[in-house]
């Protein structure tokens, strides 16, 4: 094991939680066979030797296994949280004490602490950034421009981060190449859809114990995340309506069997609102005014900006109370609206995030993209790249193999047929 600066530099809630963290990290490890294979190879080949990884990711059991993989590959790893509410304190403690990895993350940290932790990562002068939401990259470029040239390359985990990075590249502001892990098919088709679909439901159920069957549920955004949430809600007997701005996605939702409503139409109809757009103020003052007594709101998009919380607080005029763990109630003069996990990602704020089996693929892509970025950074321009298709295919192949599933291959005749333009009727 490479012992990093963890022994002296870290900021976590309670080191005594480490034993529980180790148990849970090992549980997740069992569900992550692809990452285990990569870790074994990394340990032999040391592809990240000498690389200082600055990571800004949700501090979960799955992330712990990714950090261990990078460390096995020879990297010096420092980790901060990518959201103030997504840190699992036992995992943070275990990473520091048991795995020798520096962590700067406390569940429930305030905004200043969140940025202090990102700065602690930046203080280590990373040569590779691994971001989830682009906050670390943004901080380096805005506050520490002189450090940007030290970074060989980066990787980005989520849709919102990729959108921000593309905006930076369009402004000629991006100082090094970044691999958009989210764009791997073995990431967004599975993590965003099946992972977020299941874990969003999990977060809502843990927080509220709500019976989904028979309820009216408005889901804003029918992207990969929204599709997963809608499918799971429908599977539990919910009546689901999609709120969209993209006509193609709205049509897709309609033909998948969902209602399509405007936010205004959904406001007085739904019992539960879930946002997954990556956008701001999707449900806002006029919608809160129209909502039913007891309506519940949750967000699964990256930032806590999808619900206009400022308006909600103003409308409640201080009449806000905690009614259950992770649920606040806003009293709007006799009508009560309920908010889960402060409007932050509900699956991480009120549950454990995605199941490890799906993060296995996302983080296999992260590990292999990090290796690729280190090997190829000199050939890459300062822009956003997709994950090389060969990596995507390898992750899918390994995952199928882990399920014990065999795949057919094209016969020579079939290969020739699909490559030819001469065959017709
Ligand atoms: N909670 C998690 O663990 C998790 C996991 C993956 C992604 N995410 C985040 O979830 C969000 C969505 O990701 P995605 O991959 O589904 O993105 P996506 O781009 O595939 O889908 C977003 C959808 O939202 C729609 N939209 C945008 N503005 C809207 C508005 N005002 N009203 C209604 N619809 C609107 C878009 O038209 C699009 O169809 C992002 O912020 C992403 O970073 C969260």
Structural summary, described in words:
The chain has 17 helices and 15 strands. The strands form two sheets. It has an eight-stranded mixed β-sheet with strand order 9-8-7-10-11-14-13-12, with helices on both faces. β7, α9 and β8 form a beta-alpha-beta unit. α5 crosses α6. The chain binds nicotinamide-adenine-dinucleotide. Nicotinamide-adenine-dinucleotide binds next to α7, α8 and α9.
The helix-and-strand class reads: alpha/beta
CA radius of gyration is: 22 Å
User: pLDDT average, as an integer?
Assistant: 96
Shape estimate: globular
Oligomerization category of the chains in this entry: single chain
Can you list the ligands bound to this structure? nicotinamide-adenine-dinucleotide
Beta strand count: 15
Q: Portion of residues in helices?
A: 40-55%
Query: Strand fraction band?
Result: 5-15%
Q: Determine the number of helices (DSSP H or I, runs of at least 4 residues).
A: 17
- Describe the sheet with the most strands: 8 strands, mixed
Distance between the termini: 62 Å
**Strand order across the biggest sheet?**
9-8-7-10-11-14-13-12
Low-confidence stretches: none
């Amino acid at each position: 094991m490479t012992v990093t600066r963890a022994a002296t530099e870290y900021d976590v809630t309670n080191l005594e939680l480490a034993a529980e963290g180790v148990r849970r990290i090992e549980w997740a490890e069992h569900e992550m066979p692809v990452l285990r294979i990569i870790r074994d190879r990394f340990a032999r080949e040391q592809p990240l030797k000498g690389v200082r990884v600055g990571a800004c990711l949700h501090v979960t059991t799955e992330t712990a296994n990714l950090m261990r993989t990078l460390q096995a590959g020879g990297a010096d790893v420092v980790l901060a949280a990518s959201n103030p509410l997504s840190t699992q304190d036992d995992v943070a403690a275990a990473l520091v004490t048991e795995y020798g990895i520096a962590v700067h993350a406390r569940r429930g940290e305030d905004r200043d602490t969140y940025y202090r932790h990102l700065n602690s990562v930046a203080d280590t002068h990373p040569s590779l950034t691994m971001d989830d939401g682009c906050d670390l990259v943004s901080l380096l470029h805005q506050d520490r421009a002189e450090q940007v040239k030290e970074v060989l390359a980066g990787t980005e985990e989520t849709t919102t981060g990729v959108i921000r990075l593309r905006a930076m590249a369009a402004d000629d502001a991006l100082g090094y190449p970044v691999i958009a892990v989210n764009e791997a098919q073995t990431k967004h088709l599975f993590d965003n859809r099946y992972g977020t679909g299941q874990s969003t439901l999990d977060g809502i159920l843990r927080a509220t114990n709500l019976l989904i069957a028979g309820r009216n549920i408005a889901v804003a955004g029918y992207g990969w995340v929204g599709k997963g949430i809608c499918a799971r809600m429908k599977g539990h007997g919910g009546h689901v309506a999609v709120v969209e701005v993209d006509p193609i996605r709205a049509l897709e939702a309609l033909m998948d069997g969902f209602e399509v409503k405007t936010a205004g139409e959904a406001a007085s109809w739904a019992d539960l609102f879930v946002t997954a757009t990556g956008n701001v103020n999707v449900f806002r003052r006029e919608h809160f005014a129209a909502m039913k007594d007891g309506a519940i709101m949750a967000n699964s998009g990256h930032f806590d900006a999808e619900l206009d919380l400022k308006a909600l607080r103003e409308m409640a005029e201080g009449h806000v109370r905690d009614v259950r763990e992770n649920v606040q109630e806003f009293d709007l003069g006799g009508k009560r609206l309920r908010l889960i996990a402060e409007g932050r990602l509900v699956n991480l704020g009120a549950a454990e995030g995605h199941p490890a089996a799906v993060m296995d693929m996302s983080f296999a892509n992260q590990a292999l993209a990090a290796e690729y970025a280190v090997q190829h950074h000199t050939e890459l321009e300062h822009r956003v790249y997709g994950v090389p298709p060969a990596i995507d295919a390898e992750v899918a192949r390994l995952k199928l193999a882990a399920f014990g599933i065999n795949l057919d291959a094209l016969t020579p005749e079939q290969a020739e047929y699909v490559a030819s333009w001469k065959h017709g009727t």
